[in-house]
Amino acid sequence: MRKIIISLGAVAVLTAGCNLEQDPVAVQSADPGKPAGKSGSPAKGKTFPIKLTAKRAHAKKSILSDGDALSCVKVTVTNQTKKQLEVNPLYFSITDTGNTKHDSSSALGEYEGQIDTTSLAPGEKATGLVCAKGNFHPKIVAMTNPLFSEAARARVAS
User: Fold this and answer.
1) Is 102 left (phi over 0), alpha (psi -120 to 50) or beta?
2) Whose CA is closest to 114, among 102, 130, 125?
3) Which UniProt keywords apply (predicted)?
């Protein structure tokens, strides 16, 4: 009986922190002056802990490039929290106009100017390129935190 109670307690503790229905992160507008909500309509007065802006860009291929097509966005990450914010090129993904998600690790090191791996203090910002292999039109760029849960999303400006 004691083993059953301990087992049930362990299962309860392990699943208590799980959020099975995670709310999607609101998508920030391509226009820095107008934040957009989850449905794409402007969210009045909404501020985001991590401000993320993105614009379509072209990257200069590095010596490590294998010659495949790259689709890139220039991102700016601004830490609007009161804590340090970890930024890493592996924390980004790009969703195209067909709603296909492209992982940035597919093109890591194949272009110059990628966003640096850094720690941002409150109020600091970092800018750089995020690319993925393939020839597609970027629609949304997403950034995760070190635990790989989504932290910020932004529409890509043309």
Assistant:
1) beta
2) 130
3) Signal
Q: Which structure tokens are listed for 134?
A: 């393939």
Q: pLDDT tens, 80-119? A: 999 999 999 999 999 999 999 999 998 998 999 999 999 9
Domains in the chain: ranges and CATH: 22-157 (2.60.40)
Is-contact 131 110, C-beta < 8 A? yes
3 Ramachandran zone, left/alpha/beta (phi>0; psi -120 to 50): alpha
Give the three-class secondary structure for 26: coil
Assess contact for 87 and 116: CB atoms under 8 A: yes
Residue 34, classified by CB atoms within 10 Å of its CB into exposed (0-12), middle (13-18) or buried (19+), is exposed
Does residue 40 come out as left (phi exceeding 0), alpha (psi in the -120 to 50 range) or beta?
left
Contact 114, 60 (CB under 8 A): no
More confidently predicted of 56 and 5? 56
